[in-house]
Amino acid sequence: INPAIAKSIQKEGLLFFVLQLSAALAFNFDLVLISSLIGAEQAGEYSVVQRVFSIIPMSLGLIWVSLWPTYREALAKADYPWVFKIFKKSAIVAVVYSASIAIVLALSIEFITKIWLGRSLDIPASLIWGFVIWQIIDSLGTSIAMLLNAASIMKYQLIVGFSFAVICFSLKITTLSYFGTHVLPWTTVFCYLLLNLLPTYIYLPKLIKNIHSTNY
Question: How far is CA 95 from the centre of its chain?
């Protein structure tokens, strides 16, 4: 047993745990906010739309669960060209897949809800297409996260993720009170683009340098 390695694993595991809590704050409290600030009926309708589109991240999760350890093994062998090649392909496939499925779901959501609930729901178009855009953005962000997780770049993700979670949660409370449920996915999209993807794009050269310099 190597105490240094054990300590490193514990530290990285703790950072990832906190990162997951931040993600839960940003993504999983929409229904709680709607129920508290507007009402249970609106929360129920929002939940239906959310569940319909949840098929996309659930299906992509089958890919992500295998990519993480595969990236790690390739990084340990210093096969960086393969890692970045597969990352680009996975990101493109994820975005195209999520966009295609999300658009199909958006166009057929009235039919889906009628079959599922036995009646049609009067769902605002802005809510539906907000979920479409979010699923596309989320698939890109998750593909990036899988690479950063495999490369043990946790501190950066934690700083960005925690900032995003706190600001997004606070902004959702404000926008929900003034505009209603249909703005929630758009709020998530705006915050994620500004506080997550933009910083990642700016610091991309440093992140790539970090990946090359880490001893896996």
Answer: 12
CB atoms within 10 A of CB 13: 11
In contact, 193 and 202? CB cutoff 8 Å: no
- How far apart are alpha carbons 206 and 134 in whole angstroms? 27
> What span, in angstroms and rounded, lies between the C-alpha atoms of 107 and 129?
10
Asked if residues 164 and 191 have their Cβ atoms less than 8 Å apart, the reply is: yes
Tokens of 124: 């605002």
Q: Supply the angle between the helices 184-192 and 3-27 in degrees, to the nearest 10.
A: 140
Kindly report the pTM of this predicted structure: 0.89
d(CA 53, CA 184): 14
Please provide the average confidence, as pLDDT, over all residues in the chain. 91
pLDDT of 162-204, one tens digit each?
A: 999 999 999 999 999 889 899 999 999 999 999 999 999 999 9
Round to whole Å and give the CA distance between 203 and 33: 33
**Helices and strands (DSSP H and E) totals, the chain:** 10, 0
